[in-house]
Each structure stands twice: as C-alpha cells, then as structure tokens.
C-alpha cells in the first residue's frame, strides 16, 4: 500500500520523503543535507550508529530518488486530483540544467537508462572506456527519469506495446501485456519519425510543384499581356487606314479585346488564389509536423499521430487561357472583311 511504501521512502532524520538520497557503507539511506548536518566531529550512521574512520564518499542513489519521485507524483495525484491547466503550463521554457548524479555539480551530457543516472563528460568515461558498460543504453540528458519508470512495477520501461500503444516494462510483458506484440521505444520512435518525414517529403514536393505552377501562371499573364498588345497593334494598323470613316468602330473593337483580357485575368487570378491558399495549408501542416519532431525525445511523441490527407493537396494545374474567344475572333474577322469591302469600294 502507499502507507507502507511511504515508511520505506522516509528519511529517519527529518521524517520526510527522501530529498537527494545517499547511501552510506552500512546500507542505510538518508537525505544528503540531513546526513551532513549530523556529521560534525565524527562520522557515524544516525540509524545503526556504525562508526566510520573517515568521511564516506557520498553519491546520489538515483534508483531510490526515482522511486521517491514516482511515489510523490502518485500521492499528489490521489490527494489533489489532476492539476489545473494553468499549473501544467507554468514554467514552460524554464528548464533547469541537469546535473551529474556523481559529482552533483557539473552539467550532465548523457543519461544512462541502464544505470538510471545522468553523468557529466568526466564521469561518463567508464561507460566509454570500460567494456562492462558497452551494452548500457545512453541518451540525451533526461531531467525527470520518473516518467521512464513503470508506475506498477517500479522498473525501467524498456519496451513499447504495439497493441495498446504505450511504454511497458518487462514485468508488464509477462502479466497484463502477455501475448501482446511489442517493440523498443527507439524502433517506435523511428517508425513515427519515418512516417512524419514521408509526409514532409510529400508536402515539400507539392509545395515545390505549386510554386512552379504560380510562376508559370505569372509568366502566362505576361505573355497574355504581350499577345493582347500585339493584337491591339494589329487592329490599330487596320483601323488607321480608315480612321476618318471608322473611328467609332475601332474604339469598339479595342474595348472588346480589353474586356476579354480582363475576363482571362480574372480566371487566372482566381486559380492562382486557390493555389496560394493550398500552399498556406501545406506550410501550416509542415510546421505542425516539425513541432511534433521537436518533441521526439518525449514519451508523448511515441503516441503522437498526425491526421494527414494527401488527397486535400492535389497536384497543381495551369489552366490554358487565351484571347481567342468567339467575340474577339469575330471582331477581328469583321474588321478584315470590312477593309476588303472598303478597298473594293474605293477602287471603284
């Protein structure tokens, strides 16, 4: 029960749960500050009174410290219920440096998930040089190792249950999760990362195609303007020969071409807006995936999902729009025919 476990995790000096527990040669555990306060002229165990000829070398009992953190977390949840959202968000971004559990001074560079302790570069040397530690699992510094401890069995959660989608320890695999398919957290992390990176690749490809389509549309706009200018010049050359007689007809023909150009431009602007909106949506999805990837070292990342529907991002297309509408073509044909008729009339 929690009460009996609390007795085992209580310092016999301050009668409170251990804070930075250390173990002395006789096997008893105390808070580091409590023990140092009792050591003045001699060095003895406050509990069994064993006398030590010299001051023992004190090192943090990382396993006991993790168990105490887990116990405190469970008791606080049962006493106060789930914390308020404001309290959970309090202190975000104010992470303290993780200290070496051996010297308790230097900043830790790695955490050993086998030893359940963090080490600075100096005290990590045995893990690098000694073959005995070759199979120990090293990771980036982890501040709260309690989240890696199974709340039911107080063992390191070294496995990930694929069926239930949660981290488990070896005892969980033998009991509640017996018969479940499992993998390692690293393999599960790689699976999620690979899936997210595939989605990023698809988004990058679609964004690149969309940007290319927008560039082609802008180029087409420029060509349409050039084509319109040339056609207006052709019409102007024809009407110049009969300006005195057909000035009003020329102005009407010019307005027809300008109107058709405006219609073409409106169609292209509408299509380009749809492509631009699609680019914004894909960019937002890309930012959300990068946000998930930035949390790849947390346990929450192992259960992360990202709803991604590739069908929403269709391949961009460039519409074929030109000035050869029936009205423009008819206007140009009428002008040419009128010139022929006028020429025949003038010849007579």
Task: Report what the structure shows.
The protein is mainly α and 348 residues long. Among the domains are: 1-79, Herpes Virus-1; 186-347. The chain is 52% helix and 7% strand. It is built from ten helices and ten strands. It has helices at 2-8, 32-38, 62-80, 85-89, 125-129, 170-174, 185-240, 243-293, 299-302, 326-347, and strands at residues 21-23, 29-31, 43-44, 51-52, 110-112, 117-119, 138-139, 159-161, 166-168, 182-183. The strands form four sheets. A three-stranded antiparallel β-sheet has the order 6-5-7, with no helix packed on it. Strand 8 and strand 9 form a beta hairpin. The chain is rod-shaped and about 135 Å long. Residues 83-94 have low confidence and may be disordered.
Secondary structure: helix percent: 40-55%
Widest β-sheet, arrangement of strands:
6-5-7
Overall mean pLDDT stands at: 84
E-strand count = 10
- What is the H/E order? HEEHEEHHEEHEEEHEHHHH
Q: How far is the first residue's CA from the last residue's CA?
A: 120 Å
**Broad shape:** rod-shaped
β-strand percent reads 5-15%
* Rg for CA atoms: 38 Å
Count of helical segments? 10
Structural class assignment:
mainly alpha
Identify low-pLDDT runs.
Answer: 83-94
How would a crystallographer describe the biggest sheet?
A: 3 strands, antiparallel
Summarize the structure.
The chain is mainly alpha-helical and 348 residues long. It has helices spanning 2-8, 32-38, 62-80, 85-89, 125-129, 170-174, 185-240, 243-293, 299-302, 326-347; strands at 21-23, 29-31, 43-44, 51-52, 110-112, 117-119, 138-139, 159-161, 166-168, 182-183. Among the domains are: 1-79, Zinc/RING finger domain, C3HC4 (zinc finger) (Herpes Virus-1), CATH 3.30.40.10; 186-347.
């Amino acid at each position: 029960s929690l009460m009996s476990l609390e007795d085992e995790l209580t310092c016999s000096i301050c009668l409170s749960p251990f804070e930075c527990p250390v173990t002395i040669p006789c096997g008893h555990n105390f808070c580091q500050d409590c023990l140092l306060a009792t050591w003045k002229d001699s060095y003895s165990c406050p509990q069994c009174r064993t006398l030590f000829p010299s001051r023992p070398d004190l090192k943090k009992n990382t396993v006991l410290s993790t168990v105490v953190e887990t116990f405190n977390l469970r008791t606080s949840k049962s006493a106060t219920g789930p914390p308020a959202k404001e309290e959970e968000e309090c202190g975000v971004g104010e992470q303290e440096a993780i200290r070496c559990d051996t010297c308790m001074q230097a900043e830790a560079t790695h955490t050993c998930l086998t030893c359940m302790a963090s080490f600075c570069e100096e005290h990590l040397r045995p893990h690098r040089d000694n073959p005995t530690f070759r199979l120990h699992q090293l990771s980036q510094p982890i501040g709260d190792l309690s989240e890696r401890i199974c709340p039911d069995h107080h063992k390191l959660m070294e496995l990930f249950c694929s069926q239930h989608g949660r981290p488990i320890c070896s005892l969980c695999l033998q009991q509640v999760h017996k018969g479940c398919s499992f993998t390692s957290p690293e393999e599960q992390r790689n699976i999620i990362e690979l899936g997210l990176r595939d989605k990023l690749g698809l988004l990058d490809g679609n964004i690149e195609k969309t940007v290319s389509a927008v560039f082609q549309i802008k180029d087409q706009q420029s060509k349409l303007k050039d084509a319109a200018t040339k056609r207006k010049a052709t019409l102007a050359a024809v009407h110049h020969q009969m300006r005195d007689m057909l000035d009003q007809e020329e102005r009407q023909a010019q307005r027809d071409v300008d109107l058709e150009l405006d219609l073409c431009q409106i169609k292209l602007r509408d299509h380009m807006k749809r492509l631009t909106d699609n680019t914004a949506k894909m960019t937002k999805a890309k930012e959300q995936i990068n946000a998930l990837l930035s949390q790849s070292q947390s346990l929450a990342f192992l259960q992360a999902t990202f709803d991604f529907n590739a069908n929403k991002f269709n391949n961009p297309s460039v519409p074929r729009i030109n000035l050869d509408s029936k009205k423009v073509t008819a206007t140009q044909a009428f002008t040419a025919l009128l010139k022929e008729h006028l020429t025949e009339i003038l010849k007579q």
